[in-house]
């Protein structure tokens, strides 16, 4: 038996015993290939739990999905969060789609510290429609993906900008209804708008309302509150954040230095010294009257806190409040 290639992404086609165990590092495009395979394994019985598992496997918990396209009434841009992504993919199949996959051509990869960005200017979203008629829709545009650079390599941001789309009808169906003008007229009409079904477009419009309500839904799921109580709680907390004044940074007190005057004679030096001592003794007394609560954190209001003579004739007699709230005399 030949030796295993040194390619770290090698997966042997001969059986599961030669494949590496998940999670493992793969190329970003291969993750899209795995997502296409998972979408192909969908059945008609796939419920919400299946779609949640699908989104958990390929999207991060804080992932966002953005679609940009232009309709008859102007350009549109929709961005949905992680909780709404499973429902987005399910609406694609609810609109009559039987198969969905993505094709990336000539994509460019850029590696960052914690993410990998894939930029594909020639991306095609292919959908196979079974109703109202058998049609293949190719939606072309630019797809920008951001993956987390870890073992799971899940999608963090998904941005698909749609440029054009084509709806392909098999020739055999046209030949079968060549003599029926009504069927031919129906076949000539588009079944999608910019490659998206009406189910998906209506859901994206609904997400404009649902996205801001994610906080209410999360609070209802976490605390099991009624919708009215969730709304009251969220509004009250938002009002508190608006009313609460911003925290002001603490300012450090500035200290001023006194300038000394130079004297030319010893007599003036001695007189200046006496004057300085007298002035210093007079200026020390007001400093002693400062509240200790402003100097020492944790102390409350301190009554009669000064360096005035006390009852026993001591010079340093003061009353302070300890952090526990009790008064304590200091001598």
Automatic annotation (TrEMBL):
Domain of life: Eukaryota
Region (Disordered): 245-296, 310-331
Compositionally biased residues, Low complexity: 263-280
InterPro entries the record matches: LIM-bd/SEUSS (IPR029005)
UniProt-recorded name of the protein: LIM domain binding 2
Organism of derivation: Phyllostomus discolor (pale spear-nosed bat)
């Amino acid at each position: 038996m030949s030796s295993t290639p040194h390619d770290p992404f090698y997966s042997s086609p001969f059986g599961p015993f030669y494949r590496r165990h998940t999670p493992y590092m793969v190329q970003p495009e291969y993750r899209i290939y795995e997502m296409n395979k998972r979408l192909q394994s969908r059945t008609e019985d796939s419920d919400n739990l299946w779609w949640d598992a699908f989104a958990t496997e390929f999207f991060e918990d804080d992932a966002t999905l953005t679609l940009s396209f232009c309709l008859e009434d102007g350009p549109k841009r929709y961005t949905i969060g992680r909780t709404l992504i499973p429902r987005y993919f399910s609406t694609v199949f609810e609109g009559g789609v039987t198969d969905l996959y993505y094709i990336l051509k000539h994509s460019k990869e850029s590696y960052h510290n914690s993410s990998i960005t894939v930029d594909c200017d020639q991306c095609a979203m292919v959908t196979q429609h079974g109703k109202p008629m058998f049609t293949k829709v190719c939606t072309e545009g630019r797809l920008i993906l951001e993956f987390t650079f870890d073992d799971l390599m899940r999608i963090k941001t998904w941005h698909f900008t749609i440029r054009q789309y084509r709806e392909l009808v098999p020739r055999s169906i046209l030949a079968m209804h060549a003599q029926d003008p009504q069927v031919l007229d129906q076949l000539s009409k588009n079944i999608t708008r910019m490659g998206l079904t009406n189910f998906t477009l209506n859901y994206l419009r609904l997400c404009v309302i649902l996205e801001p309500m994610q906080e209410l839904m999360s609070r209802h799921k976490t605390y099991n509150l009624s919708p009215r109580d969730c709304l009251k709680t969220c509004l009250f907390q938002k009002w508190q954040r608006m009313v609460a004044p911003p925290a002001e940074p603490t300012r450090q007190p500035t200290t001023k230095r006194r300038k000394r005057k130079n004297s030319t004679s010893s007599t003036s030096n001695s007189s200046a010294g006496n004057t300085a001592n007298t002035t210093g003794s007079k200026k020390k007394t007001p400093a002693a009257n400062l509240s200790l609560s402003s100097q020492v954190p944790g102390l409350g209001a301190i009554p009669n806190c000064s360096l005035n003579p006390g009852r026993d004739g001591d010079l340093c007699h003061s009353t302070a409040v300890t952090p526990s709230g009790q008064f304590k005399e200091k001598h």
